[in-house]
Amino acid sequence: MRRNSLGTLLHHVHVSGPLSRAALAERMGVNRSTILALTADLAAAGLVHEGPPAGTTGAGRPSLVVRPESERFWVLAFDVAVDRLVAARVGLGGTILARRERQRARAGVDLETVVGTLAGLGRELVAAAPGGSVCAGVGASYCGMIRPGDGMVRYGPEMGWVDQAFGAELAAALGLGLPVAVGNEAHLGALAEFQRGAGAGSPDLIYLHGDVGVGGGILVGGKLLGGEGGYGCEVGHMLVNPFGGRPCLCGSRGCLEAETGEYALLDAAGRTGGAIGAEAVRAVVGDAAAGDPVAAAAVAAIGDWLGIGVANLINLFNPGVVIFGGMLRDVYRGAAPQVAARIAEHAMPVSRERARLRVSALAADTTLIGAAELGFTGLLSDPLSHSPGQAQPDPAAAAGSCHPA
Amino acid sequence: MRRNSLGTLLHHVHVSGPLSRAALAERMGVNRSTILALTADLAAAGLVHEGPPAGTTGAGRPSLVVRPESERFWVLAFDVAVDRLVAARVGLGGTILARRERQRARAGVDLETVVGTLAGLGRELVAAAPGGSVCAGVGASYCGMIRPGDGMVRYGPEMGWVDQAFGAELAAALGLGLPVAVGNEAHLGALAEFQRGAGAGSPDLIYLHGDVGVGGGILVGGKLLGGEGGYGCEVGHMLVNPFGGRPCLCGSRGCLEAETGEYALLDAAGRTGGAIGAEAVRAVVGDAAAGDPVAAAAVAAIGDWLGIGVANLINLFNPGVVIFGGMLRDVYRGAAPQVAARIAEHAMPVSRERARLRVSALAADTTLIGAAELGFTGLLSDPLSHSPGQAQPDPAAAAGSCHPA
């Protein structure tokens, strides 16, 4: 009970930032003396501190607010994206404290290379962290299908990975004595946008993440749709074009990602063999907006397929919000009329009446922030087990800092 | 707490039939003396009785089993299906005690006619019920989109209904002093098959109900996928054929139900304008199996579209089981090779590895049983509030029987 209450209070300040005791009491449905006691415990463990609200001047006596100790407790977050490998130190409260990034080659990058690069970046971040600060966990986002529990990549089409022990290998290479929690990038994006982005307050949420492929993260009643084995939400391989569709990395043809991914757009714009990546996508969308007819036709064509996919999802999930992330942010901005027209044509009026369409609020950091949230799970479920002031059964897991073993 | 335990015990014997005290103790994780006390309360209220197991002979002293009082506590269940209107008295335990059925015309049947017919059948069933027996609730299944809470039909394409107060009108016409809980037929079918059919033990379940249209009921983690407004699961209007697809009752073209519903099959078999309904569908599938090449090609073509729809659902939901109900039972039996081939081609291997394909075990009664389960919800959540031996705040709701007011 008490552990739950401590976790709930810490979760509130982690997600919402500084909150007064009165606000916490109202959110948690308990009285202020309970908040006082919980806050005292968390403060003693170094997880929060109380102080005047920002912008307070000397006059009067402002009511204090509870703040997360963002510099002191942090997680390592990793993002294996289609064009880069990212590592960050993210503080309690969700602030990115420091980051390192490496471009990566498309396709054919092996497990050893990815793990070696990420572990190197991670160790740099740990070495540069302030003395006495605490690494509370490690989370990673990967652009593929992840087995829950152990972070095994069951299928990573863009890299050609099948059954690669990514989570375990990265944990071993980091040598921090901490497990690495791994999630699919779009799943994590959905959770991040729900927690602190364009989907806040919408427990029935669809997040679509586009780059070379198109991934989906779907929340049903505030929970990630897992399915029997945790592999649900594979929106990218929904067949939308059954007649001569474009070939897909999965081996099939006409999948949503084959028709709406980066290469579909660049090919439709007549830019096959030219520049690739997020900048190239933005260039097509920008040229379309500036009146280039070939670029405009390409954006419209991709928007039509995207709209069909979204209409199908609206029929199936009756969502409160659909969020476009990754390069689909740019595509949606350019193709909103086509997407709206397809939804009007193919989604049932009752199903679509409450569905808002948004671009991701966390922008390029959506999946990285999602990975950080995964890393914070343990701390938020049992705050005092991670604090340096408490007796620790496992010294490696909470040694006051997490410099390499 | 006690109310919950009483409801849980009653739920177990309702779903599983006679159970020994030992079996109940094990399922509920409590000791036998608790089961004894709970059983005594439920028996005093007339909801269960204890006796020797079925098939017991005189020799020895068998351990007693707890049985639901199926004849004494029952619900009225209604099913507004595409070709008929059904009313049934369904006993605690799920047994259909009595039923009445009327064929109905296709399309254009108005609310007043449907409500009048169903209420008449319902009153007949109530009048014929044994004296002293108790009507514990009323549930109804409707082939359209239903607003949660009040049973408003938001959209019933086959009948052309928009915003018709079906639940309230049926309750008024019955005059039993009981509300009518209404659900979409495929939603209720999914719950029924999960509770006592082909999906038992599979909390991630997809139920597809076919007739003129194709409805879906999808369970995610054992709960019906509702979405923001309760209108999720509209699988029938997933666009599968974006190029010149068949027109759909919803006004669009190429929807899954337009390509796989009854008329699609009959038209493909060259039987446009002939017999319609379940028998006509079975005739096509039967002729296909017997070697009629036109019928075989029709079944295969429908099976291809059905397989595309199922593959998409497997990618999205990673289900443990997909169940074919209504006329899709027959179509799936005839078109299993096409469905399997499309799944192999379009569903990700990781997504489909645990997905079993089954036909509905409750057959033509799936949706009716689902409606009955909806009717039992109140009794199972608070068993003693419905018993005639208890003080009742609302005499109309539990008057010992529910003859028309």
Task: Classify the oligomer.
Answer: homodimer
Q: What structural category arises from helix and sheet content of chain A?
A: alpha/beta
Can you count the beta strands of chain A? 16
Shape of chain A: globular
Q: How would you sum up the major sheet of chain A?
A: 5 strands, mixed
Strand content of chain A: 15-25%
What name goes with the CATH superfamily of the largest domain in chain A?
ATPase, nucleotide binding domain
CATH T-level fold name of the largest domain in chain A = Nucleotidyltransferase, domain 5
Distance between the termini of chain A: 34 Å
The succession of helices and strands of chain A, N to C, reads HEHHEEEEEHEEEEHEHEEEHHHHEHHEH
User: Unreliable stretches of chain A, pLDDT < 50, 5 or more residues?
Assistant: 389-405
The structural domain count of chain A equals 3
Order the strands across the largest sheet of chain A as they lie in space: 6-5-4-7-11
Number of helices of chain A: 13
CATH architecture of the largest domain in chain A: 2-Layer Sandwich
- Helical fraction of chain A equals 40-55%
**Largest chain-chain contact?**
A-B, 51 and 51 residues
Cα-atom Rg of chain A, whole angstroms? 22 Å
Mean pLDDT of chain A: 92
CATH class of the largest domain in chain A: Alpha Beta
Family (chains A, B): Belongs to the ROK (NagC/XylR) family.
GO molecular function, one term (chains A, B): kinase activity
Organism (chains A, B): Actinoplanes siamensis
Region (Disordered) (chains A, B): 385-405
